[in-house]
Amino acid sequence: MSETAQLLEPHASSTPPPPVARRAKSRDRWALVAQNYGTPAALVVLVIFFALASDNFADPANLKNILIQISPLLIVAVGITVPMAAGDYDLSVGANAGLVGLLCTGMLAHGSITSVPLAFLIGVLVGAAIGLVNGFLISWIGFPSLIATLAMMSVLQGLNTAYSGGLSIFNGIPVQFTDIAAGGIAYVPTLIVIAALASAVIYLLMHRRPTGRHLYALGSSFGVARLVGIRIAPTRTLAMVISGIAAAVAGMLLASRLGAGVPSAGDGFLLSSLTVVFLGMTMYRIGRANVPGTIVGALFYGVLQNGLNIMGVDSAGQSLATGLVLMAAVAFAVFRNRNND
User: Fold this and answer.
1) Which residues lie across from 189 on neighbouring strands?
2) Phi/psi at 296 (nearest 5 deg)?
3) What is the domain partition of the chain in residue ranges?
4) Arithmetic mean of pLDDT, 112-130
5) Which string of b and e fits 164-188 if b means at least 16 CB within 10 Å?
6) What's the confidence (pLDDT) of residue 339?
7) Exposure string (b/e) for 38-64, b if CB count within 10 Å is 16 or more?
8) Is 268 helix (H, G, I), strand (E, B) or coil?
9) Using one digit for the tens of pLDDT, what is the confidence trace for 134-172?
10) At residue 8, does pLDDT exceed 50?
């Protein structure tokens, strides 16, 4: 065929798609954008709404306060993001945080430990041990994660009551301990710095290292993961240990912020952290736990709670709003997974 003939011959690749196909492609593109960025867009709308509804919300001091308030929650949430990516749940995080925060303040207040860094290190080790036991029950004994961590939650609550007698610890806590939450690094509050570091470390683990790919493979199919050579039991155990350490760190930071060891301090972490992670599952990796989504979910949760507080909504109304947000997030994630399948 001559060069002129080749130039005159129509090519399928150069034929423009019909208008109907172009419109369908455009709709699909916008639908994908809405699915991936709907939650951040809702966060922006929420911020604008509260800023217009209240003169105090947009104050820089209040916005800074929101970040401080959500920092312990964000640490717990990015922690449980790891096992949830593998299809496991850690229901013991609230009891873990409460017990470790109580133990840390108790050791310092009673004088059994005089070094604040050593007390923090012991708290981290306790959290890791709790995660290790959870991982052993789930990965090696074969307990479902919900049952194993629910049982662990009950055990930790019992230890909490036995240690404290149900009473808070106020007296004898050194100033160096409470200064952790009150201080800052280069004008940035310490709580925000630690939450950012924890998020960055777990992001690198989940989204830049083979461990993250292994966790997502487990979340998709244990059978396939086993066939490709992933070590299932050690990987699931590692995820639980990370979750346990994150909960322990959050519990100690919360105790530092409160300036006391409060037995019930960690009770709110479980539901709120699950809400945050499920909110995050509506973006980025739709239907899967992921760190960027968890960060946005924590911001959404913090803005919602703070805005409702400023507007004078009582605790019942806040619980109702949180429950509705959680149901909507779970429903969206489930439907997206079903459609993808």
Assistant:
1) 184
2) -65, -40
3) 38-340
4) 95
5) beeeebeeebeeebbebbeeeeeee
6) 58
7) ebbebbeeebeebeeebeebeeeeeee
8) coil
9) 999 999 999 999 999 999 999 999 999 999 888 899 888
10) no
For residues 218 and 238, the answer to whether their CB atoms sit within 8 Å is no
For residue 340, the SS3 value is: helix
Instruction: Give me the residue label for tokens 């079903």.
Output: 338
Sequence-ordered strand ranges (E) for the chain: 184-185, 188-189
Q: Both tokens of residue 157?
A: 């609550």
- CA 212 and chain centroid, separation: 15
What is the C-alpha separation between 294 and 289, in angstroms, rounded? 7
| DSSP notation for 98-158 | HHHHHHHHHHHHHTS---HHHHHHHHHHHHHHHHHHHHIIIIII---HHHHHHHHHHHHHH
Tokens 């100690």 sit on residue: 252
Assign domain 38-340 to a CATH class.
mainly alpha
Helix (H, G, I), strand (E, B) or coil at 330: helix
Tokens found for residue 271:
């539901």
